[in-house]
Amino acid sequence: MSKPSKEISLKKMKWMLFLLGFAKIPIIGFVKPKLIKLDDAEAAVKIRLRRRTKNHLRSMYFGALAVGADVAAGLHAFYFAEQMGKKVSFAFKGMNAEFLMRAESDIVFVSEDGAIVKDAMNRSLEQGERINEPINVLAKNSKNETVATFEMIVSVRVKA
After folding, report:
1. Where are the beta strands (DSSP E) in 15-160?
2. At 48, which CATH number?
3. How many structural domains are present in the chain?
């Protein structure tokens, strides 16, 4: 089946996130999300409320919120690809968002669906097909209040 997974350091994943924003997806580099936590189950990313991420109402701009949800939902694909030593084709097929209140402080985006991503990647490797799964992301402010919820439809294909 698959070989035992190797341990991936948070420092290495922070570097990979920086490189992704610098070389491949410039909007990620512009917003500068900070990776707080990444393990098999959970990914947490923080985006500071500052001039680059603020709208005219002095709350976090929709685009910055979308970047945070994108990164939090997508990190597990890169994390598990590194563990498996495989290349992965990864994209978002859809997104549903519900905004509950204004994001008027730094925002932490949390996805606790690592097991779903890992399962999707294992099924993709076995079947040789693209697998789509919904991943939930919560956006929380500095008072730990949920300001938005996101359902990101991730589409992964692991290349053998």
Report:
1. 34-38, 43-47, 87-99, 107-111, 131-140, 146-159
2. 3.10.129.10
3. 1
For the entire predicted model, the pTM comes to 0.92
Helix (H, G, I), strand (E, B) or coil at 60: strand
For 30, 47, 58, 84, the CA distances from 20, given in Å and listed in that order, are: 11, 16, 28, 19
Q: Is residue 1 part of a domain?
A: no
Query: Measured between alpha carbons, how far is 10 from 114 in angstroms, rounded to an integer?
Result: 15
Residue 5 corresponds to which tokens in the numbers above?
Answer: 């997974």
The alpha carbon dihedral of 137, 140, 144, 147 has a sign of negative
- Classify each residue of 73-98 as buried b or exposed e, where b means 16 or more C-beta atoms within 10 Å of its C-beta: bbbbbbbbbbbbeeebebebeeeeee
Specify the pairing of strand 43-47 against strand 34-38: antiparallel
Dihedral sign, Cα of residue 96, residue 101, residue 106, residue 110: negative
Residue 80, H or E segment: helix 62-84
Is residue 84 within a helix (H) or strand (E), and if so which, with residue range? helix 62-84
The per-residue pLDDT for range 120-136, each reduced to its tens digit, is: 999 999 999 999 999 99
pLDDT on residue 9: 86
